[in-house]
Amino acid sequence: MGTKYVNAVISEESNENSLPVLDGTLGPSAVDIQTLYARNGLLAFDPGFRSTAACKSSITFVDGDKGMLLYRGYPIEELAERSEFIEVAYLLMHGDLPTPSQRKTFDDALGYYNILHEQVLSFYRGFRRDAHPMAVMVGVVGALSAFYHDVMNMRDANDRELATIRLIGKMPMLAAASYTYSIGRPQRYPNNKLDYATNFLQMMFGAPNREYVVDPVLSRALDVILILHADHEQNASTSTVRLAASSGANPFACIAAGIASLWGPAHGGANEAVLKMLMEIGTVENIPKVIERAKDKNDSFRLMGFGHRIYKNFDPRSLVIQKQAKKVLAHLGKDDPLLEIAMRLEEIALKDEYFIERKLYPNVDFYSGILLRAMGFPMNMFTAVFALARTAGWVSHWLELQGESHGIDRPRQLYVGKTLRHYPGKK
Ligand code: CMC
What is the pTM of this model? Predict the structure, then answer.
């Protein structure tokens, strides 16, 4: 049987075979295929979701051709320069920047709920000391659902808000503990006199028996990293959270699912993979060999921190991160040879026909590892920092989904397995 084709003609007139086209406020329109199967007995096939809008959302907009990223309409560059992470988290969750009194209420709530239940801390002892922090975070965030399940009514807007506050509030201590446990240092508690990023740094790097003063330049750099990573529309981990949430699952369990999805090297795990790659390259002279490997179709190696499903131009976040990395290194008086390798690699790749043709540019992860390393973060904590930031986006999408009525997300498939057959002996 030959291939069959369907014609899709976009017109102003409707007929019994036509499907409506939906317009958003920005970006491409979408064909509404919800009735396709009922009317035509056909499914839409789009593995990898390259042409699928899985939901309507008003949170974040990405224009990959222009290299544009907007949170609730605000350009990421403006937020990175003028805002702070907690304000951005509020913006993502509620749609607008907070007034001073809304901000105070939000800060007070985060300050009240930012300590981990003492029994949660004992969970860490069940993990091997050398466990990857992301593995620990998947487990511990999932375990929070055992603490806050029956006490929450997800039909109640206040309880929903409380779940999101608990998640954003507790995540810094939870992430820091996954590191301090691995090195055997007792965990510090949050200090409500400090801002979110500073608190995370003191819990990561301070010991409980002595004062630890956080360098404000590092604290601001971390806050910028958190802003840049806070949301990115329907990426793999956010879609995972939405899919899990569509069944009505516990919000902490949904976020644990998001963390698991983020960990992969094609997604949030790329920041760690970039640094490993730069270390392996070792010197500028080795760059051409690596470029050749990345272009070789018989080699599964990819240039980590390069390329993006949506951006076919510079990832605007990578430009901000590169600037921050240079600023922090200069402030600390450090001269990281990996920065030179990264910049040279970028320069060579951007002039190479292979990368030009495929529109492969540095993404957010290309320079973030260099910056986090300069700040003292061990490599295996890079993706955990990403998870901490992305929690703001995940909970915003989780909240948005609660207001929708389309029921459980249940994709279909194009079955290509065996047709009906019978067990041996069955007539
Ligand atoms: N190095 C070499 N070739 C690449 C790369 C790369 N990093 N990325 C894509 N390509 C090639 C790919 O081989 C393919 O070539 P061809 O057309 O000849 O088969 C073409 O470019 C298109 O690639 P694709 O796999 O269809 O692109 P995708 O949209 O499915 O993948 C990606 C996007 C980010 C997974 C991919 O670019 C990649 O693996 N990059 C490296 C990992 C990385 O940096 N991930 C972080 C993404 S940004 C942060 C986040 O979202 O979490």
Answer: 0.94
